[in-house]
Amino acid sequence: MTVVPREEAGGQRAGTPPLHVENLSRVYSSGEGQVQALAPFTHTFPPGMTAVVGPSGSGKSTLLNLLAGFDTPSTGHVAVGDVNLTTLSEPARADFRLAHYGFVFQNHNLVSILSAQENVEFPLTLAGLPPKERRARARELLALVGLEGRAGHLPNQLSGGEAQRVAIARALARDPGILLADEPTGNLDSKTGELVLSLLTGLAVQGRRVVLITHDLDVAALAQHRLSVRDGVVTAG
Ligand SMILES: Nc1ncnc2c1ncn2[C@@H]1O[C@H](COP(=O)(O)OP(=O)(O)O)[C@@H](O)[C@H]1O
Ligand SMILES: [Mg+2]
User: Does domain 19-109+176-236 correspond to CATH entry 3.40.50.300?
Assistant: First the structure.
């Protein structure tokens, strides 16, 4: 693998593949019948940040899980550049996801027995990067999120905002073109949330596709593009 060096300040990231969904839908079957969690939806995600807003239960996480290929659609497909994510085999999809996607969840999902530095190194270890290079890359990423002084801390020795910034550093380890964030500030106080959002906004400005799920309209206002979801129906704006 190649690790792309840190971008020049304000520079555009080259070679980010387009993210397109075609006729994408998801119906869940449960004891009480069927739930159309996502109605057929066609959209090309532009570079920059797209906020996905909607009330609880409207289908936001369903959409994100489909975009990531964690879940299989009932109809349609997800394409990243020339690659149809939906028809890839499960192992190929996992490899593709590791190389092209970063994830930030409401809970940071850091590995509790690994230090901040080791958590950031983890995806690079999976990618087979030699120890010296992955240490240097992880240090660079921790500095990017302002946590060079916390490299040796375990997750439970970090504040919620610090842990979320480590999670962002980890999501960036392989310099993905697509970042998917599901309520990343949901558990943070507003000041810490703003810091995390400004990091994500900066990454979007560099030309990545950042899909930010939120039920907070103030947060959504920070994004260049917006989608609204209501009862599984996605509309622009
Ligand atoms: N695995 C599942 N099985 C059955 N129904 C589900 C499942 N996941 C989500 N749903 C239903 O699909 C709808 C959308 O859920 P979700 O995408 O999680 O909403 P949101 O993230 O906007 O809160 C809800 O009605 C939810 O109950
Ligand atoms: Mg959700």
Answer: yes
